[in-house]
Amino acid sequence: MNLNKVMLIGRLTRDPEMRYTPSGSPVTTFSLATNRYGQGPDGEKKEYTDYHNVVVWNIGKRNLAEIAGQYLHKGSLVYIEGRLQTRSWEGQDGQKRKTTEINATEIQFLEPRSQSQPAAATAEPAEAAVATGTGRAEEPSRDVDPEDIPF
Fold first, then answer.
1. 3-state secondary structure of 71
2. N or C terminus: which one in the chain shows less Cβ crowding within 10 Å?
């Protein structure tokens, strides 16, 4: 039996970049930073940061790539679930290149839009539901008008 599953909580290090394949399929990429703690060489407690490249595709009728491209931005706190994937290609200089990235199958926004968006870009009330990569919104603890949810 095999298992290839990744679960991360972290912050975007840059704004997502959405592109389209030649067949018209959207794909969104971004980098995610996660922190961990350990001992440094001197024995002192130290914080380490790991960086992860994330690739998001639409899955079936779920517009995951489009949601990520539209609603995430640098600094967003998100939960990512997916699998590791390693790609190889030959660069323009003829050198073989290789990268390992997370192919996301689930994304959940972990902060209200009022906190996760820059102040100038916030156009909706702070009470809006927390969005998930499923294209639906999870219900917050108080009532929200369904017309206010952008999905």
1. helix
2. N
Those residues with Cβ within 8 angstroms of residue 99's Cβ, 6 or more apart along the chain or in another chain: 53, 86, 87
What sign results for the dihedral spanned by CA atoms 26, 57, 137, 14?
negative
Per-residue tokens: 10: 């972290």
Phi, psi of 120 (to 5 degrees): -70, -25
Confidence of residue 115 (pLDDT cuts 50, 70, 90): low
Q: Which of 107, 50, 60 is nearest to 79 (CA)?
A: 107
Contact (CB, 8 A) for 149 and 129? yes
Beta bridge partners of 45: 39
The C-alpha atoms of residue 98 and residue 90 are separated, in whole angstroms, by 9
Q: Across the chain, where does the E strand assignment appear?
A: 6-12, 17-20, 26-39, 45-57, 77-90, 96-109
- Domain architecture of the chain: domains with CATH: 6-148 (2.40.50.140)
Across 46-64, average pLDDT? 94
Q: Please give the model's pTM, rounded to 2 decimal places.
A: 0.71
